[in-house]
Amino acid sequence: MTIEIDDSGTGDIIGSAFILFWRRETNILIKKEVPLKLYQSPDFNNLTKEYIKNLFIETFKEMNIPKTEDIYLCTGNCFDLARVFLKEEKYNYHDAKIEGYLQDCVEQTYLDHIIEEYDVPAHRVSLESGAKRFFSLFHWVYQDFPRRKAFVKSGFPKWKTKWEIEAKNKWMLEMVNTDEKNSPHSKRNTYRKKWSHRR
Questions:
Q1: DSSP label at 7?
Q2: Which run of H or E residues covers position 5?
């Protein structure tokens, strides 16, 4: 028997993260959530790693995983304490690049979460994680910054020092531009231009 384990959402700017455990031969798939509130703490790095380690302990009991079973674990550093658990308990695990079925499942789990929970438009986010998805979600956040900032993993150091400031500034700029477009003065100027063109 073989177990594969992968994560999604751990580096994305909004929402919870997810850990999926898959036994290939029986197609048993267990999904576990790492809640957003842990990522909103300044100590998120330690809190989430400890939480994920406990998810391993819980799920290994749930799946009745023997120590002889081959376990392939994503190389992400969110699993640092989980690896300590695996080594101490002498499980037969290997660090690996997870691809194919499980990778698609875990990324889709994260996308379903942000689409259903926060109404993120499905066309705005790609299945593949990385810079493209990060900036797409960042753009979505700043479009309604006062409300959507509550969905952000605000414990990330760069959120406070860079991205929060940039998101607020972009939102304020959009508000100013919207006000100018909707102002009576702007409408009068548009009317004059149309009238002048007709003459």
A1: E
A2: strand 2-8
Q: Could you give the C-alpha distances from 65 to 56, 60, 103, 153, in angstroms and in order?
A: 11, 5, 21, 32
What are the distances in angstroms from CA 164 to CA 35, 44, 151, 157, 189? Answer: 21, 17, 12, 10, 35
Amino acid (one-letter) located at 21: F
Residue 65: name the closest of 83, 91, 38 by CA. Answer: 91
11, amino acid identity: G
Closest CA to 107 of 13, 37, 176, 19: 19
Q: How many other C-beta atoms lie within 10 A of the C-beta of residue 81?
A: 17
CA 81 – CA 137 distance, rounded (Å): 29
Assess contact for 159 and 153: CB atoms under 8 A: yes
Contact predicate 152/13, CB 8 Å: yes
**Domain locations along the chain:** 2-121
Residue in this structure with the two tokens 């109404």, named with its chain if needed: 119
CATH topology for 2-121? Nucleotidyltransferase; domain 5 (3.30.420)
Reading the block at residue 90, the tokens are 């002498």
pLDDT for the residue numbered 175 = 86
In the DSSP assignment, the letter for residue 42 is T
| Backbone φ and ψ of 76, nearest 5° | -60, 145
| pLDDT tens-digit readout, 146-193 | 999 999 999 999 999 999 999 999 999 988 877 656 665 555 554 454
